[in-house]
Amino acid sequence: MKAALPKIALGAWAWGNDGTFGTNFTEKDLRPIFDSAMKSGLNLWDTAYVYGMGTSEEVLGKFLRSVPRESYLISTKFTPQCANLESKNAVIEMYEGSVKRLGTDFMDFYWIHNPVGAPEWTRKLIPLAKSGKIGRIGLSNHNLAEIKEAAEILGAEGLKVSAIQNHYSLLNRSSETSGILDWCKTNGATFFSYMVLEQGALSGKYDTAHPFPAESARGQVYNPVLSQIENLNTAMKKIADAHNVEVAQLPVAWAIAKGTLPILGVTKVKHVEDAVKAVNLVLSADEIKTLEELADKAEINTIRVWEKEMK
User: Fold this and answer.
1) Cβ-count burial of 225 within 10 angstroms (0-12 exposed, 13-18 middle, 19+ buried)?
2) What are phi and psi of 211, to 5 degrees?
3) Phi, psi of 263 (to 5 degrees)
4) How far is residue 164 CA from its own chain's centroid?
5) pLDDT digits (tens, 9 = 90+) for 218-267
6) Of 175, 180, 134, residue with least CA distance to 154
7) Which of 5, 165, 196, 197 has the fewest CB atoms nearer than 10 Å to its CB?
8) Mind listing the pLDDT tens digit for each residue in 164-191?
């Protein structure tokens, strides 16, 4: 019997030691995080080969081998830019590499990481999907037209797009305004929202007086716009205090209230504890409206170099 889908997925992007978060995390650092999450019922893990070119999957796989297969759900990805373009079996080869690193022969979610080469990669995924080795097929960083195209290709083979994973936050609601969220609701697909905390910019930890480390990737992206989200941060602090929670839990609770399944990068046990609290936090319609209005007024573009606006 497979584990039920939790309200939050935990992301192992930073576990790939790619320097994005300014720190290289060891297995000793990460094991308590994994144990705390599993104990708390947060057992859906999101990763990809491209996160550290296999490092994230390897570390996560070592931990997953220590617990029963039915106790967790795994989500990993086929990244077109990392594929062997000379091979006719590029999708299967990347999948099998993930299988080896993660220590499982079944992926609960398997994603086409981005639309580079679409719809060719969608077609090449079909034999793997029909083999029964994938629970749900997902598309990440696809716009609505690309999603519909993939759904048509898969539908002709008796398959479906079961999940969408895009950047979605108070500062980037293009997957909502473009109609992608509505498409998911209509077609029974789960929408995974990543970067709901904008890599910490919406956590309440950083502001103009307390910026990100200037030399970090996050600092280069968010420090120049911290002044533009001061009003939003102030409102989040007021709402958080009213609920007796921390600011970092608000954007997550907001994403859940919008019908999405947030992916939270976890690099500390506290991040897991915050995630558990966010699951139980219910925001009022007025609070959601206030947050969205202030976020829109900030007029910040947080689309990253690997993404595009969902139109």
Assistant:
1) middle
2) -75, 170
3) -105, 120
4) 10
5) 899 999 999 999 999 999 999 999 999 999 999 999 999 999 999 999 99
6) 134
7) 5
8) 999 999 999 999 999 999 999 999 999 9
Write down the pLDDT at residue 20.
53
pTM for the full model? 0.95
Q: In angstroms, rounded to a whole number, what is the distance separating the alpha carbons of residues 152 and 166?
A: 20
- Name residue 161's beta-bridge partners: 137
Alpha carbons within 13 A on the beta-carbon side of 77: 28
Which residue do the tokens 């936050």 mark?
169
Distance (Å, whole) CA 254 – CA 295: 12
What CA–CA distance (Å, rounded) separates 149 from 146?
Answer: 5
Residue 130 — φ and ψ, nearest 5°? -75, -15
Q: Do the Cβ atoms of 191 and 175 come closer than 8 Å? A: yes
Q: Locate tokens 């046990």: which residue?
A: 269
Q: What is the mean pLDDT of the chain?
A: 94
pLDDT of 304: 77
Q: Domains plus CATH for the chain?
A: 9-199+247-283 (3.20.20.100)
- Picking from 159, 112, 267, the residue whose alpha carbon sits closest to that of residue 205 is 267
Amino acid at 60: L
Nearest to 224 by CA among 166, 302, 172: 302
The angle, 0 to 180 degrees and rounded to 10, between the axes of the packed helices 249-257 and 230-243 is 90
Amino acid identity of residue 293, one-letter, is E
Is the distance from CB of 43 to CB of 73 less than 8 angstroms?
A: yes
The number of angstroms, rounded, from the C-alpha of 108 to the middle of its chain's C-alpha atoms is 15
> Helices 90-102 & 120-130, crossing angle to 10 degrees?
50
pLDDT band at 279 (very low <50, low <70, confident <90, very high): very high
What's the full length of the chain, in residues? 311
Q: Residue 232: which of 183, 180, 302, 137 has the closest Cα?
A: 302
